[in-house]
Design brief:
This is Protocadherin gamma-C3. It contains six helices and 49 strands. The chain is mainly beta. It folds into six domains: 94 residues, Immunoglobulin-like, CATH 2.60.40.60; 97 residues, Sandwich (Immunoglobulin-like), CATH 2.60.40; 101 residues, Cadherins (Immunoglobulin-like), CATH 2.60.40; 97 residues, Cadherins (Immunoglobulin-like, Sandwich); 105 residues, Immunoglobulin-like (Sandwich); 103 residues, Immunoglobulin-like (Sandwich), CATH 2.60.40.
């Protein structure tokens, strides 16, 4: 949509331009909520908009002559942008001229020297007045003060300029009047009109009575822009019927030409050849009108003027320009397809097809260009984005014109994706299995769990925790025994493990990221407690005090290898650490008794003799197979007495010899088998896991 306003130049700041809300037919409150913005194509911000009223106002002084020079129409272009949804409106403000500049001559006075024999109708150009206003406000006419010899002729150029010329209407007579004093008034068409004056002093001279004459009143030429230096534009030809110095002609560029034109063209004063000496740029000027004068060498000199019109042909010498009207270098990775990333304005200073511009981006990128209207594109997202896949894009916007060959320009837009918390942390292992020797130090690291999160910054900051047991038994809660470092995942023991109380522990570790909301994951940790040889064997039979020995009585007629008694011991450890051996270390007569290595049975090895002692003291040591081994000693006293079997205190021994293991022995054997089986199964599972 396009809206046009017209305002005069030089309005005060805050002056009313138009009501955009009224002209768009929308509610002012909607414009304020839609983040209304006014974007200018120029470097200065001449206008502003009140979002509460929808009124566009002048914000800086506007000088039409400074903005547009002599162009008959002057426009300022704005773009009105609103969001939700994104819409653009083009506003064109025409700046109307006011009569704020009078015509001005280059000087207050000019002097002319005219030969008295000057032909009637001879023309004498006067430097024109300049008025920067346009239209009716610019220079319109000249007035010459009343006199007897000269009339005023105003010459109109193709560019609209007006050049005053004095035309000799009556012959001059130096002897009658040597000087003529005239006043030339320049007046514009404003209301009221403004004017300025220049005094003209004419000195009448004798001598040279013929001026040079060009073979045609005007010349024309056509050149392509960027023509090489020294290119011939045109060769002038003027003649003077006088002889000698009065007929010798010199060519020059008239003082009417601007300084810029003099830098572009040069003329050979002898040959009249005009050549290029500066850069010809179609985008700066399409037509040059050169004022040339031919002077003879008489005294005084006489001159003639002509015009050379040079038309410039455009070539494709300007690459397109890419201007970012709006651009955000960061973009959330969850932006929906169709999100506007940048608003791009393109232009080409060439004309015709050479000034038409096409834009495109690589189809391999998740972005596309949408043409909003002539010379404006929007860069949009075309698909879903994933920062973890690609975090940064360099989007190259290529602009090409339709020239032959075409010219192009490439602009790189760096776009960084902002992370959102769309990835849950992942553990390196689904489960962990740990072997821990009992009696471990407090605070020792049992295992380190590790997880990774492909998100960035706060969304990838991980925190570890041990989940409390879900059961009602607080003794099963792993947080009683273990703690975990919240950032590095190291699991440490709060207390030493005791294999005799706990052989296996299982718990979950949860990891959560720092996003909002946080995402979580879990892993399972199996802890197998490995037994250490920390328990010495305990003798359960025979029972005796610390400082006393257990007595057994046997008959002197006992027959070997009769069972005297059996030492029964247990070890709270497991495996080899509970594998017991029995040894007879000391005895009154080592050859009389023997102890079974594994069962602890004490038997007599030979028949008693009269020479044998009546009392025998035996020291039996029970030792486990741990490393280092632990042991316990028990002392037994065997008395040889002539008493009936019913009086012997070795009835337990006879019961043991009669068959059937004591209940305590059976319990020990079963416990040892179960503990060994559980340990072997756990070690085998862990070995398979490692493989």
């Amino acid at each position: 949509a396009q809206i046009r306003y017209s305002i005069p130049e030089e309005l005060t700041r805050g002056a009313f331009v138009g009501n955009i809300a009224k002209d768009l037919g929308t509610d002012v409150a909607k414009l304020a909520a839609a983040n209304l913005q006014v974007l200018s194509d120029s470097d200065s911000q001449y206008f502003s908009v009140n979002v509460n009223t929808g009124v566009i106002m002048v914000s800086e002084r506007i000088d039409r002559e400074q903005l547009c020079g002599q162009n008959p129409r002057c426009f300022l272009h704005l773009k009105l942008a609103i969001e939700n949804p994104v819409e653009f409106y083009r506003i064109e403000v025409e700046i109307l001229d006011i009569n704020d500049n009078p015509p001005e001559f280059p000087s207050d006075e000019v002097s002319l020297r005219i030969y008295e024999l000057a032909s009637l109708g001879a023309r004498f150009p006067i430097q024109p007045a300049q008025d920067p206003d346009v239209g009716t406000n610019t220079l319109q006419t000249y007035h010459l003060s009343a006199n007897d010899n000269f009339n005023l002729n105003v010459k109109a150029r193709t560019d609209g300029g007006k050049f005053p010329e004095l035309v000799l209407e009556r012959a001059l007579d130096r002897e009658f009047r040597a000087f003529h004093y005239l006043v030339l008034t320049a007046e514009d068409g404003g209301s009221p009109p403004q004017s300025s004056k220049i005094r003209i002093t004419i000195q009448v001279l004798d001598a040279n009575d013929n001026h040079p004459v060009f073979d045609r009143p005007s010349y024309g030429a056509r050149l392509v822009e960027n023509s090489p230096l020294g290119t011939l534009v045109v060769k002038l030809n003027a003649t003077d019927v006088d002889e000698g110095p009065n007929g010798d002609i010199r060519y020059s560029l008239s003082s009417h030409n601007s300084a810029a034109l003099r830098q572009i063209f040069a003329i050979d004063e002898q040959t009249g050849e005009i050549r290029v000496q500066g850069n010809l740029d179609f985008e700066e000027a399409t037509v040059y009108e050169i004022e040339v004068e031919a002077k003879d060498m008489g005294s005084p000199t006489m001159e003639e003027h002509c015009s050379v019109v040079v038309e410039i042909t455009d070539v494709n010498d300007n690459a397109p320009e890419v201007i970012l009207t709006s651009f955000s270098s960061t973009l959330s990775e969850d932006a929906l397809p169709g999100t506007v990333v940048a608003v791009i304005h393109v232009r080409d200073r060439d004309s015709g097809e050479q000034g038409k511009v096409l834009c495109h981006v690589s189809p391999d990128l998740p972005f596309q260009l949408r043409k909003d209207y002539e010379h404006q594109y929007s860069l949009l997202t075309s698909t879903r984005l994933d920062r973890e896949h690609v975090a940064y894009y360099n989007v190259t916007v290529s602009a090409s014109d339709l020239g032959n060959p075409p010219l192009s320009r490439h602009t790189i837009l760096p776009i960084t994706l902002i992370d959102i918390n769309d990835n849950a942390p992942q553990f390196e292992q689904a489960s962990y299995e740990v072997l821990v020797a009992e009696n471990n130090p407090v605070g020792s690291v049992l295992v380190t769990v590790s997880a990774a999160d492909p998100d960035s910054e706060q969304n990838s900051r991980l925190s570890y925790s041990i989940l409390r047991a879900g059961g009602t038994d607080p003794g099963l809660d792993p947080t009683r025994y273990l703690s975990i470092h919240p950032t590095n995942g190291q699991v440490t023991a709060k207390f030493p493990f005791d294999y005799e109380q706990t052989t296996y522990l299982q718990f979950h570790v949860e990891v959560s990221d720092g996003g909002s909301p946080a995402l979580r994951n879990r892993t399972l940790v199996h802890v197998f407690v490995v037994d250490q040889n920390d328990n010495a064997p305990r003798v359960h039979f025979p029972r005796a005090g610390e400082d006393s020995a257990t007595q057994f009585r046997i008959s002197p007629s006992i027959v070997p290898p009769a069972l005297i008694t059996k030492v029964v011991a247990i070890d709270a450890d497991s495996g080899r650490n509970a594998w017991l051996s029995y040894n007879l270390v000391e005895a009154t007569d080592l050859g009389l008794f023997s102890v079974a290595l594994r069962s602890g049975e004490i038997r007599i090895t030979r028949a008693l003799q009269e020479t044998d002692a009546s009392e025998h003291e035996l020291l039996v040591v029970v030792r486990d197979a741990g490393e280092p081994p632990l042991s316990t000693a028990v002392t037994l006293v065997v008395l040889v007495e002539e008493k009936g079997p019913e009086a012997l205190q070795g009835s337990e021994a006879r019961a043991a010899d009669g068959g059937g293991l004591p209940s305590i022995t059976l319990y020990l054997i079963v416990s040892l088998v179960l503990i060994s089986t559980v340990s072997l199964v756990g070690l085998a599972a862990l070995g398979i896991r490692w493989l």
